[in-house]
Amino acid sequence: MLITIPGLLDPDALAGIRTSLETVGWRDGRITAGVQAARVKSNRQADLSTRTGAELHRRLYDAITGNAIFEAAAQPRKLSKLMVSRTGEGEGYGTHVDNVLMGSGDTRIRTDISFTLFLSDPQDYDGGELTIDWAGMVHSMKLDAGSLLLYPSTSLHRVETVTRGERMVCVGWVESLVRTAEQREILFDLANLRANLSKSLPIEAPEQLALAKITANIRRLWTNS
Ligand SMILES: O=C(O)CCC(=O)C(=O)O
Ligand SMILES: [Fe+2]
User: Fold this and answer.
1) Would you say the CB of residue 116 lies under 6 angstroms from ligand 1?
2) Exposed (0-12), middle (13-18) or buried (19+): which is 200, by Cβ within 10 Å?
3) So where are the chain's domains?
4) Ligand 2 centre distance from Cα of residue 157 (Å)
5) So which cofactors does this thing need (predicted)?
6) How far apart are CA 207 and CA 201, in angstroms?
7) How much distance in Å is there from the Cα of 196 to the middle of ligand 2?
8) How many CA atoms lie within 13 A of 124 on its CB side?
């Protein structure tokens, strides 16, 4: 399931993040890629190890994890460290599958879901679509700045070569409490149904209670602790 979250960053948050990005250092993106991916990766990544970098990381992290749609769709147990990358003219990231494990020690996660938070306005660059092979179909995605895309880490995907301008994004990975994309989709549909039902029915209505019970018990079956 591909899920887009429009406007995850509001214009003020986006502007603040862009301003901070003007002050960070950049290094070769291949250092964080796996062996196969490094051969096809061509971009630069923000150095988030400085004080400004860490503050920027915290702002991005809080915005992403504080978003209710992200929470409902991803059911995160843990997130990877976030990365911010910039891809200029002639650069891109060829077809690859993401590493199964990210991080080390206590912060090591299994990658179930990948996400991209777009930071550049689409009209500021050509090319640079995130192209995902999913369920036998190819999806080419270029979202508005501030919008986030979630896609299964199990997919082959690539970033098309940028032919004009520059593409800036924040990427990261989720280890989910719920193992499969099919299960997550059902839980996400249930969460949306409950949210919609709440607009017209009081929370103590029998239909609401029945749906709350069904949702809770399916989550009990599918949540891995
Ligand atoms: O830049 C993107 O949208 C995705 C990057 C990517 O596939 C990766 O970092 O593994
Ligand atoms: Fe990737």
Assistant:
1) yes
2) exposed
3) 3-176, 181-222
4) 6
5) L-ascorbate; Fe(2+)
6) 8
7) 33
8) 14
CB of 171 shorter than 6 A to ligand 1: yes
Q: Which atom of ligand 1 is nearest to the CA of 116?
A: 3
Q: What is the pLDDT of residues 3-32, one digit of tens each?
A: 999 999 999 999 999 999 999 999 998 888
Cβ(34)–Cβ(93) below 8 Å: no
Give the span between the Cα atoms of 58 and 5, in whole angstroms.
19
CATH number for the region 3-176 comes to 2.60.120.620
Q: Is the ipTM of this complex over 0.95?
A: yes
User: Ligand 2 centre from 15 Cα, in Å?
Assistant: 26
Ligand 1 atom closest to the CA of 157, numbered from 1? 7
**72: Cβ below 6 Å to ligand 1?**
no
d(CA 78, CA 93): 25
The reported pTM is 0.94
| Contact indicator for 149, 216 with CB cutoff of 8 Å | no
pLDDT tens digits for range 31-61 = 888 777 888 889 999 999 999 999 999 999 9
Close Cβ partners of 133 (under 8 Å, ≥ 6 residues apart): 155, 156, 157
In the reported structure, the alpha carbon of residue 7 is separated from the centroid of ligand 2 by a whole-number distance in angstroms of 22
Q: Give the atom of ligand 1 at the shortest distance from the alpha carbon of 83.
A: 9
Give residue-wise pLDDT tens across range 56-107.
999 999 999 999 999 999 999 999 999 999 999 999 999 999 999 999 888 8
Show binding-site residues for Fe cation: 96, 98, 157
